[in-house]
Amino acid sequence: MQTSDNSFRRRQKREEYIGLLKHNVTRYGFELQCNVPYNGNGFFHAICFHLGRKDPKHLRQEVVAFLQTKACGPLRATLDYMFLKDLRTNGADVKEERVG
């Protein structure tokens, strides 16, 4: 039963965040273009929407490959193994404490 309660609380909190986001988007004169699924790939879904691409999983793989092979300078210095591991895992959010 506790798992169900936790799941309900997480869903409720997510809905509160979404409501606040929609309010702020409208308040600052922007409009939502699409709803992205809450599945850990939301960022990549949104980017695909704006690029006219279909596969957020593939885009995620491309971003990771680019970061692993072509990132340099200050960008490269900010990347570490755990960040790339989180980013590489399809459907996983990068842990909040990893985002500075």
Q: What is the CA–CA distance across the termini?
A: 35 Å
Order of helices and strands: HHHHH
Strand content: under 5%
* pLDDT < 50 runs, ≥5 residues: none
Quickly give the structural class.
Answer: mainly alpha
- Estimated helix fraction: 55-70%
Radius of gyration: 16 Å
Tell me the number of strands: 0
Shape: globular
* Main sheet overview: none
Give the number of helices.
5
Mean pLDDT equals 82
What does this structure look like?
64% of the residues lie in helices and 0% in strands. The protein has helices at 2-27, 42-51, 56-69, 73-78, 81-88. Helix 2 packs across helix 3 (56-69). It is globular, with a radius of gyration of 16 Å.
What's the topology here?
Layout: H1 2-27, H2 42-51, H3 56-69, H4 73-78, H5 81-88
